[in-house]
Specification:
By secondary structure, the chain is of the alpha/beta class. The protein is about 55% helix and about 15% strand. It comes from Microbacterium murale.
């Protein structure tokens, strides 16, 4: 039974934070409900601090021991992946090589099994600067020290929990190294403090990834594997940062870093984990960016702002993103990508922002040549999200009228309380002090009344003259319902226009992303709605970053809006189909036209929202056996 599959199940339950039936989980993973029950039993057998998975009439959900179970490292495992990592670590540690017969005996496996493991090691080394050399029974790993450290980093990342970069997780991934377990977290705290004192913003999501490299360097230096003297011409900031890292490594790890390691680690910190703070002027910050990079970023920002009709053009924002892209290019040169533990949640929670990031990344790839991976795209999405946050908040604010019959300054006090408690989501535009207002004449989104409303509807909320916490909660819930109703109403209107009855496939075959895209795209081509190049461009977009925006839905599409008219082809699997690193149950191939740019955001974001709700997904998939039934169930779910 795959431990990796067990962990994937537990991670899914943690993301859902709700009950899920064995059948729905089986569909998601492409297995039987019996297998799901086996995974649950195995997870609970591994758990030490309470059940990892709770069971009940409604199915399964993550239990109190879920996080501890994911972080607990099993001992004495002989699973192929664990044994492969052990063999690689032995090769890295033994510069003279390992003896095949002695190693097989040490690992309690046959010589044939170890030979198979060595073949897998050779596959692991493909595309790296490392290679295996064999002389009779002795096998050696050859390559530069930098390449060997990259391999160590790759193994450690593979052993760490997906999306987890806690110091404890890093320590566990480096078990057996010279780095003391209790020193990892204090080192990280001190490093962040010192970097802040030097005037840098610290990226907490990336600093732990850098910490992993520092721990690897400390271990290798203690084993006599120091790097060579650094190359001349490094940034002026390198010696300063290197001095900080060297001092802290000696203090916390008891390791004396040489000039080569000091400069190498300082470069990692500079290109991955920090950015100039407010004390650093724009001119100084700009001096660290190649003019070609800044020009490319500016051009792509302007293009994305026009394509997606969002407010992105801002000099400070362009400079910050250019600095990030400059560092991204340096990481690409070293094939040293930075992981982002928020990639999955950003993609599912903010699909539109992520899509803008994909578009910008695609353009930067064309202009600058560097491949940009999913985690790097997620960092670009975070820059974009920060820029768009204000405008997104402004769009989500609802207008409200307060109805509060006049008595001294009571209505003024109430308005002040509403502004203070709900100002982030509700804007009071008028106050009515009459005891018998014209309810039909009030045209704001919400009506907050201290007297019984003279009309019915979700927008009317009864509150007390002196606002209570319960009042705040009721208004917040009403506002949330109003916003959701608006979004889904727009979605219902759009979908009724864009779904194509002849482009509905059920059951969808599990034949790979590209084959599914060609199958669904071919139906739209046959209907004369898109040309063949749209299908090819959709495949190109899919290769950049998976369009599986939730655990149930993939929305493949091209970055170019070249469809004759906006149209959506739907494929529904009886169980699930492989997509990206996971599986999905529904594939909605969306083709957008230039004239329907405004529909892109409505359809894209809200369709993802609907398919983020497990109960809704199961209802639509189970009952949507035909195009008409699928559309009926989708509309019913939208209408609530």
């Amino acid at each position: 039974m795959s431990r990796q599959r067990q962990d994937q199940l537990l991670q899914t339950l943690l993301r859902q934070d709700d009950w899920a039936t064995a059948a729905s989980l089986a569909d998601l993973f492409g297995v039987t409900p019996r297998s799901i029950r086996s995974y649950v039993a195995a997870l609970n057998a591994r758990a030490t601090g309470g059940d990892a998975v709770e069971s009940g009439p409604a199915g399964y959900r993550a239990g109190a021991g879920a996080h501890a179970t994911l972080r607990a490292r099993a001992t004495g495992e002989s699973a192929p992946r664990d044994r492969l990592h052990t063999v690689v670590r032995m090769l890295l540690d033994e510069s003279e090589g390992i003896d095949v017969f002695a190693t097989a005996e040490r690992l309690h496996v046959s010589e044939a099994t170890l030979e198979a493991d060595l073949a897998r090691v050779r596959g692991l080394l493909d595309g790296t600067e490392l290679r295996l050399e064999r002389e009779r029974e002795t096998v050696r790993l050859l390559g530069t020290e930098i390449a060997q450290r990259r391999l160590l980093s790759r193994l450690a990342h593979d052993e760490m929990d997906a999306g987890s970069f806690h110091p404890e997780s890093i320590r566990r991934a480096l078990t057996g190294s010279a780095v003391a377990a209790h020193a990892v977290a204090p080192f990280k705290t001190a490093l962040v403090r010192e970097l802040g004192a030097l005037g840098y913003y610290v990226n907490e999501l990336a600093i732990s990834d850098v910490l992993l490299h520092i721990a690897i360097a400390a271990d290798r230096v203690s084993a006599g594997r120091a790097l060579e003297t650094p190359q001349p011409g490094a940034s002026e900031e390198i010696p300063k940062l290197g001095g900080v890292i060297t001092q802290l490594a000696a203090e916390h790890f008891g390791v004396a870093l040489g000039e080569g390691d000091s400069a190498h680690l300082a470069t990692l910190v500079l290109t991955r984990a920090i950015a100039p703070g407010q004390s650093v002027g724009h001119d100084v910050a700009r001096s660290g960016v190649d003019q070609a990079v800044e020009a490319a970023v500016r051009a792509e920002i302007v293009q994305a702002a026009a394509d997606y009709q969002v407010d992105l053009v801002d000099e400070a924002f362009i400079l910050r993103l250019a600095l990030h892209v400059q560092n991204l290019l340096r990481r690409a040169e070293e094939q040293a990508w930075t992981r982002n533990p928020l990639t999955r949640s950003l993609k599912s929670s903010y699909p539109m922002i992520f899509e803008v990031a994909v578009s910008i990344a695609s353009g930067l790839h064309d202009r600058l040549g560097a491949p940009i991976h999913d985690d790097e795209i997620a960092y670009i999405a975070m820059h974009i999200g920060g820029r768009l946050e204000r405008s997104r908040k402004a769009e989500s604010i609802l207008t409200a009228t307060i109805v509060c019959p006049g008595y001294y300054e009571l209505h003024e006090l109430l308005r002040s309380s509403v502004d203070r408690s709900l100002g982030a989501s509700v804007e009071v535009t008028s106050v009515v002090t009459s005891v018998d207002p014209d309810w039909d004449a009030i045209d704001t989104d919400l009506v907050l009344s201290t007297i019984e409303p003279g009309a019915n509807g979700d927008r009317y909320v009864r509150i007390q003259p002196f606002l209570t916490e319960a009042d705040v909660e009721r208004v917040s819930q009403a506002a949330a319902r109003m916003r959701r109703t608006r979004r889904l109403t727009r979605l219902r209107e759009e979908l009724s226009r864009y779904f194509v009855a002849d482009a509905f496939v059920r059951p969808l075959q599990d034949e790979g992303e590209e084959a599914v895209i060609r199958r669904l795209g071919g139906l739209l081509v046959g209907a004369g709605l898109i040309a063949g190049d749209y299908v090819e461009n959709t495949i190109v977009r899919e290769r950049m970053s998976s369009t599986a925006f939730t655990d149930a839905l993939a929305v493949p599409h091209a970055l170019q809006m070249t469809a004759q008219r906006t149209a959506i082809a739907i494929g529904v699997a009886d169980g699930s189909v492989a997509w990206g690193e996971g599986r999905v149950q529904v594939v909605a191939l969306a083709a957008f036209s230039e004239s329907d740019r405004t529909a892109f955001q409505t359809v894209f974001e809200q369709l993802v929202e609907v398919f983020s709700e497990r109960e809704s997904v199961q209802r639509i998939v189970r009952r949507g056996t035909s195009f008409e039934a699928f559309l009926d169930e989708l509309v019913a779910v939208i209408d609530g």
